[in-house]
Structures are given as structure tokens and as C-alpha cells.
Amino acid sequence: MLLRMSPNEPMRAGFILAGGKSTRMGADKSFLEFDGQTLLERALTLTTKVCDRVTIVGDPGKFANYKADSVIADIFPGCGPLAGIHTALVHTSCELNLMLAVDMPFVSPELLSFLLAAAASNAALVTVPRVKDGLQPLCAIYRRDFAGVAEQALRGGKYKIDAAFHDVLTRVIEDDELASAGFSARNFFNMNTPQDRLASEGRSF
């Protein structure tokens, strides 16, 4: 069941992180066709169902024709997904901000709704799921104040997202809690390489 807002709930913003170079894939992942949609179209459709505003973080010239509220470029270009998260949080006016990588085709609106509900129920700067493969910071909820933490890391040349969590209050949703809610590691599958794309065929959303 999808999360429905009550009048007292904070506004929620969704950000699709689509600024990567897709080097390992050999083609821009945003435009790969999968189950009748591009990965970007799918991410936008999912995020629109659970967020009040949806923004693409990537090249404004490349994504200008897509149905998002806006498209914004990285403030720190070439610095990886932490730079995309930082850019999103600098631009947001919402307290709860969903970050979703464009290359996660098995994320569902129910999962995103679950994460947003978990984030709304605690004061952590980051609410992030963890499965057997580790933390999933590119399908997670961030509060605006994490922007300062991210900027400090980026200015120091530290681009690993997980490392930026060490000094902030973080709510980790463990594998067993995800399983109890009906989710699993496969929901967080990343399509990074042609082999990943082949492996994803035949899977259902």
C-alpha cells in the first residue's frame, strides 16, 4: 500500500540521480529500454507516485524534455553520486528527500513509500536500507542538513557516501526488517554493466 500524506506530514521531494558517466555499461543507462520504458522513465514514474516534487539531477541539456519538475546539474561535477546528493539537498525546500539512482529497475513504489514512512518517524539525517551487499545510499532518504556534511566531504576530496554517515545520526533499516515488510536485496539490484542487464532479463518488478 502506498503512503498517503496527511495534512500534518512534511512535504517530500524525490531526486533521480542520473549524472553518472555509465562507463562500465558503455551506453547512457538513463536511456536503456527495460520492460517497455527507459530506466529514467521508470524512475520518474515511481518517484512521482510517492513524492510531491520530482527533480532529475543530471545534465539539463540532456534531460530537458523529460517530465520532471526541474533538472539540475551537479555543483561539484565529476565527483560521483555524493555530489548529486549534495546538489539535491542544496536545492530542496523539503525536509524529507528521496534519492534514487536511475539504474535500479526493481525498486517499487511500495518500497519507496516504506522508506519515506520510516524516515518520517525518526529524526535521523539519513534513513538508509542495508542488505547483504551493504548499505544502499542511492535508494535512501536524506534530510536537508546532510547537505553540509556532504559538502565538507566533497571539499576534502572524500567521495564515498557511506563514509559521510559516520558522524551523523543514521537510521539503518536492516535486512530482516526489510524482509518483514516484503522486500529483499533484489529490489536494490543495480544495472551497471552489460552483464547486469542480461542478468536482469526475466526478472519481474
Structure write-up:
This protein has 205 residues and is an alpha/beta fold. It has a single domain (12-199), classed as Spore Coat Polysaccharide Biosynthesis Protein SpsA, Chain A (Alpha-Beta Complex). It contains seven helices and ten strands. It has helices at residues 39-50, 60-63, 81-91, 109-120, 146-155, 175-180, 194-200; strands at residues 12-17, 33-34, 37-38, 53-57, 70-72, 96-101, 126-131, 134-135, 139-142, 170-173. The strands form two sheets. Strands 1, 4, 5, 6, 7, 8, 9 and 10 form an eight-stranded mixed β-sheet that branches. A hairpin with a 2-residue loop joins strand 2 and strand 3 (37-38).
SSE arrangement:
Layout: E1 12-17, E2 33-34, E3 37-38, H1 39-50, E4 53-57, H2 60-63, E5 70-72, H3 81-91, E6 96-101, H4 109-120, E7 126-131, E8 134-135, E9 139-142, H5 146-155, E10 170-173, H6 175-180, H7 194-200
Parallel strand pairs: 1-4, 1-6, 4-5, 7-10
Antiparallel strand pairs: 2-3, 6-9, 7-8, 7-9
Helix pairs in contact: 1-4, 3-5
